[in-house]
Write a structure and sequence with these properties.
With 132 residues, this protein is of the alpha/beta class. Helix content is 40%, strand content 22%. It has one domain: Nucleotidyltransferase, domain 5 (2-Layer Sandwich). Strands 1, 2, 3, 4, 5 and 6 form a six-stranded mixed β-sheet that branches.
């Protein structure tokens, strides 16, 4: 079974989730983004540590800044030291969904838990789509 990860790339934090069996998705600690290169190095290290073979990257679809955001996300992914498969999927509303799911349970927005739950939602959608 392939080991998969998903990232939800934000300007301050990168949400991270993994699935080691293609079924159960586990949110991980968020990567705090000080700058693009540092964040890419941190994400690359985590991908190596977990021996990830497939990376799913959330891209916002729709909206006036779609092209700009896609370019930023694709550029970030090119900075990663990662040899496996990469899939880009629609991440629309994943952060909003994560906030709804955690309402009343998680108070700290800045700790990144919401971002990693959003990454987990992205990975769950991907696994359900069976595109891999």
């Amino acid at each position: 079974m392939k080991k998969l990860a998903a990232i939800d790339i934000g300007l301050k934090r990168i949400g991270f989730a993994i699935s080691l069996d293609g079924k159960i998705v586990l949110p991980q600690n968020v990567v705090i983004r000080k700058n693009r290169n540092q964040a890419a190095n941190d994400v690359s290290k985590i991908l190596k540590e977990w021996d990830i073979e497939t990376l799913v990257v959330g891209v916002p679809i729709g909206g006036s800044s779609e092209d700009e955001m896609r370019k930023r996300v694709e550029h970030f992914v090119k900075l990663l030291d990662f040899e496996g498969e990469v899939f880009f999927i629609d991440e629309s509303f994943s952060s909003h969904e994560a906030k709804e799911l955690t309402k009343g349970k998680i108070k700290q927005k800045k700790d990144g838990k919401i971002d990693s739950i959003a990454a987990a939602l992205i990975l769950e959608r991907f696994l359900e789509s069976k595109k891999w």
